[in-house]
């Protein structure tokens, strides 16, 4: 009987990224880069792909879409994260906060003028009518340059996936070293104070108080930590609500 296609593929990816050697992935950012979801990495034409295409398909699409499909299930932690993040992305998109990104997309990518995406990027829509069953955009003579629905969907899905991978890295690191992983850049360097701890993981804020990462069923997704943190009172996950993670 022949070998089943794709067998042991996940194990292959884990070995490729060095997940069996924890010193090769000291931060969650290393996994993000390997998965091709580090938006700061630019892949120019003719250059070698800076990420693993198979692993990107596995986590960004297959894993991400599993979160999408379970977004209405109250016990789906990352599904609810996706749903709430998508609502936030739409709010910002309709307010014109992504107009600069939309204009840059038109400049750097070849987008057919007959496509629906071009109409969104070029500002041919004023707003989105969520009251209709088909959720059709409403045209305008001079609307706001916005990201199309597929782009908003991808941003929210990527957010949920990156959060999951960061939480997964935290658990792996803590299990291997019996200590919290290094502070994320956004908190240790940029001084951000908001974070989401891995679900079910308690984190000591000080000697007399413990905080547990909020479940998305709660009204707030943010736990506020002090601006000044040290090794004994640091949070366990990065500032996931920061725009740089998109």
How would you summarize what this structure contains?
The protein is mainly alpha-helical and 246 residues long. It has one domain (9-98, 147-245). Helix content is 41%, strand content 8%.
Walk me through what this model shows.
The strands form 3 sheets. Strands 1-2 form a two-stranded antiparallel sheet. A two-stranded antiparallel ribbon has the order 3-6. A two-stranded antiparallel ribbon has the order 4-5. Helix 5 packs across helix 6. The chain starts with 8 loop residues before the first helix and ends in a 22-residue tail after the last strand. The protein has 8 helices and 6 strands, in the order H-H-H-H-H-H-E-E-H-H-E-E-E-E. The C terminus is likely disordered. The chain has one domain. With 246 residues, it is mainly alpha-helical.
Strand order of the largest sheet: 1-2
- The structural class is mainly alpha
Fraction of residues in helix: 40-55%
Which runs of at least 5 residues are low in confidence (pLDDT < 50)? Answer: 204-246
Listing every helix as H and every strand as E from the N terminus to the C terminus, the arrangement reads HHHHHHEEHHEEEE
Q: How many domains make up the 3D coordinates?
A: 1
Share in β-strands: 5-15%
- Strand tally is 6
Q: Averaged pLDDT, please?
A: 74
Number of helices: 8
- Biggest sheet statistics: 2 strands, antiparallel
Ends: how far apart?
A: 45 Å
Whole-number radius of gyration?
Answer: 20 Å
What is the 3D form?
Answer: globular
């Amino acid at each position: 009987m022949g070998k089943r296609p794709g067998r042991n593929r996940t194990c292959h990816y884990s070995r490729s990224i060095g997940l069996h050697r924890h010193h090769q992935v000291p931060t969650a950012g290393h996994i993000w880069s390997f998965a091709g979801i580090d938006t700061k990495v630019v892949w120019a034409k003719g250059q070698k792909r800076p990420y693993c295409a198979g692993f990107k398909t596995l986590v960004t699409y297959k894993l991400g879409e599993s979160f999408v499909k379970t977004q209405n299930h109250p016990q789906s932690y990352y599904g609810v994260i996706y749903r709430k993040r998508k609502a936030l992305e739409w709010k910002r998109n309709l307010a014109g906060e992504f107009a600069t990104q939309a204009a840059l997309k038109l400049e750097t990518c070849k987008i057919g003028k007959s496509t629906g995406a071009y109409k969104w990027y070029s500002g041919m829509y004023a707003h989105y009518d969520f009251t209709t069953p088909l959720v059709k955009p409403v045209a305008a003579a001079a609307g706001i340059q916005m990201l199309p629905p597929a782009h908003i969907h991808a941003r929210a899905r990527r957010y949920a996936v990156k959060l999951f991978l960061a939480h997964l890295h935290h658990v792996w690191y803590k299990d291997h070293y019996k200590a919290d992983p290094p502070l994320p850049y956004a908190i240790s360097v940029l001084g951000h104070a908001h974070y989401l701890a891995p679900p079910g993981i308690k984190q000591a804020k000080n000697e007399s108080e413990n905080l547990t990462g909020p479940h998305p069923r709660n009204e707030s997704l943010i736990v506020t930590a002090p601006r000044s943190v040290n090794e004994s009172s640091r949070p366990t996950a990065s500032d996931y609500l920061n725009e740089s993670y998109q």
